[in-house]
Structure formats: C-alpha cells, structure tokens
Design goal:
The protein is an alpha/beta fold. The chain folds into 2 domains: about 150 residues, 3-Layer(aba) Sandwich (Alpha/beta knot), CATH 3.40.1280; about 55 residues, tRNA(m1g37)methyltransferase, domain 2 (Trp Operon Repressor, Chain A), CATH 1.10.1270.20. Helix content is about 30%, strand content about 20%. It has 7 helices and 10 strands. The strands form 3 sheets. Strands 2-1-6-5-8 form a 5-stranded parallel β-sheet. The chain is elongated. It binds adenine (ADE). Adenine binds next to strand 5 and helix 6. The site of adenine has 12 residues, from strand 5 and helix 6.
C-alpha cells in the first residue's frame, strides 16, 4: 500500500508514524508513507495557499489552485482521495478495514476554516472525521487514520490474532477488562475466574463484562 499525505505540516502527520509498529511496517515494505507540503504547489511568491472566506466570517480557507495542482499531480489511477475534516463521516473500524485493502490513499488535510468546496466536489472521494471535536490541524487526524489502517495490513502486527479479537470486531461491543500479574496489587486481586484455566467460563465472563462496560461507557452502542 502507498499513502500520500498532503498538508501544511508534513512533520506533524509523519512524526507519529515514524516509530514502533508503523515504522516497522514501513521498514518491512508493507506500506510506503510520504508527506507533501501543500505550499510546494503555491504559485504565490510568499508561498501562500489560503485566503479569507467569501461571504465573510472568521478564519482562512485553503484556495483551490494549489490543492488542485497538488492532488492532480499525486493522484494515480487507483487512488482513493480522502479529506480529513470535522465535517466528514465519522470514522469507524469497519471503514478502516475497508480502507486497508486500498492500494493508494491520498489524504488531504484541512486547516483553518476548511478547503474551497469546489475541490471537494471535483477531486475528493470521501470526507472523514475522526470524532466530534475540532483539532487545530487535519494532519493530526491523518496520522490517526494512517495508524488505524496500517496496523491492519497483513504482517503489521506481531500476533495476527490481536487485530481480530479486539474492540469493534463487533462494532457494538467494547472489550472486556484485562489483567496481568501480579495477582494481588494494592489489595486488589485479579478476578478468580481468569486464573481458573476454564476457557469456556472465562469466555462467558468476558462477554458479560464486555456488555457491562459497553452499557456504562457507550450507551449509544446497541
Ligand atoms: N480536522 C480538524 N478536526 C478534525 C476531525 N475531528 N476529524 C478530521 N479532521 C479534522
């Protein structure tokens, strides 16, 4: 898989993808990730890429010219072009899984008030939000999306099971609590059942606790 990230801040997007599991996936050739500075496509002598919103209002809007030039030069035949924006569809694990089988993602990062809508209509395949809050910078959201996608590439995680049996494998159920040694810690013991060796009972307990946890933390999931 190839991932290109188009942003005003390539370092912000790339830094979280340059260590640990994701860097190992890159080193192993499972994914090639490149950052691109949108200003490189500016024709302005000060490398400007934004202007004030038509119709008034606060903030700045990314101009269509540099975005058009950048996206058309980075986009290939099989590219999925994604815009990170709080106006996008909420990212879910199911969509992450689908995106992990694409061959080329071009992730465009919004900044300030947003990007000129003509670019969204002509060149963006999909708008994605990583949650109902506003970040200063879409590059942070791009790093989140890349991390979630790359860890699902075959071979990225050491134990291939860990990508299957986890929260959101069932999109409506969180994971059960987990424990490790020592068995007693500050007077609190690991639940007896987890030390019993009875796998059927453990699975039953985990299911029950997963349901409890989901009700408490995510009553919106049914
Ligand atoms: N840019 C700013 N906030 C964002 C969000 N919540 N999701 C995606 N991109 C963003």
């Amino acid at each position: 898989m190839k991932i290109d990230i188009l942003t005003l801040f390539p370092e912000i997007a790339l830094q979280p993808l340059s260590d640990s599991i994701i860097q190992r996936a890159r080193d192993a050739g499972l994914v090639e990730i490149r950052g691109h500075n949108l200003r490189d496509w500016s024709e302005d002598k000060h490398r400007r890429v934004d202007d004030t919103p038509c119709g008034g209002g606060p903030g700045m809007v990314l101009q269509p010219g540099p975005l058009h030039a950048a996206i058309t030069s980075l986009k290939k035949e099989n590219t999925r072009v994604i815009l990170m924006t709080p106006q996008g569809a909420a990212l879910k694990q199911a969509r992450v899984r689908e995106l992990s089988s694409e061959t080329h993602l071009l992730i465009v990062c919004g900044h300030y008030e947003g990007i000129d809508h003509r670019i969204i209509e002509s060149l963006i395949d999909e708008e994605i939000s990583i949650g109902d809050y506003v970040l200063t910078n879409g590059a942070i959201a791009a790093a989140v999306l890349c991390d979630a996608v790359v860890r699902l590439l075959p071979g990225a995680l050491g134990d291939s099971q860990s990508a299957i049996e986890e929260s959101f494998s069932d999109p409506n159920l969180l994971e059960a609590p987990c424990y490790t040694r020592p068995v007693a810690f500050m007077g609190e013991k690991v639940p007896e059942i987890l030390l019993s060796g009875n796998h059927a009972k453990i699975a039953e307990w985990r299911k029950e606790k997963a349901v409890e946890r989901t009700r408490r933390n995510r009553p919106d999931l049914k």
